[in-house]
Amino acid sequence: MSHKYVVAIVRPDRVAPLENELTQLGVGGVTLSRVKGFGEYKNFFSNDWLTAHTKLEFFVEDARVEALLAALMESACDVPGAGVAAVMPVESFQHLRSGSHPAPGAPIAAAEQPSPAPPSPSDRSTQPQGNEP
């Protein structure tokens, strides 16, 4: 199964409307970052040409790319600086801890799920310690 890496830069106010759409599309995960920059449309009315946007990053199956791009286009407003999107091929995708090659967004198998953290020192002080009175 082939996958793509999709990066989109959108206006911050467009992220919330995208959330439900992404869930309905079956997108298994997204990384959001606050970014500043400028492209074709600069803010000439400010000393700082940079404007705040949100960067969204996705790993999706090839079959879902067009639907994802359509959702991104639909969420964009019709103003300059509405955003951009790029689609790139993914040669390999693997979990760093286990080295497994799952489908991006797929649930982690039970064998791969992280083990529970050991109790902290404060937790140990409340547990019985053998033959204490």
Structure description:
With 133 residues, the chain is an alpha+beta fold. Helix content is 23%, strand content 25%. The protein has helices spanning 15-25, 62-75, 121-125; strands spanning 3-10, 31-37, 51-61, 83-89. The protein has a four-stranded antiparallel beta sheet with strand order 2-3-1-4. The longest helix has 14 residues, at 62-75. The chain is elongated, with a radius of gyration of 22 Å. The chain starts with a strand and ends in an 8-residue tail after the last helix. The mean pLDDT is 79.
Task: Write down the overall mean pLDDT.
Answer: 79
Compute the number of helices.
Answer: 3
The major β-sheet equals:
4 strands, antiparallel
Radius of gyration: 22 Å
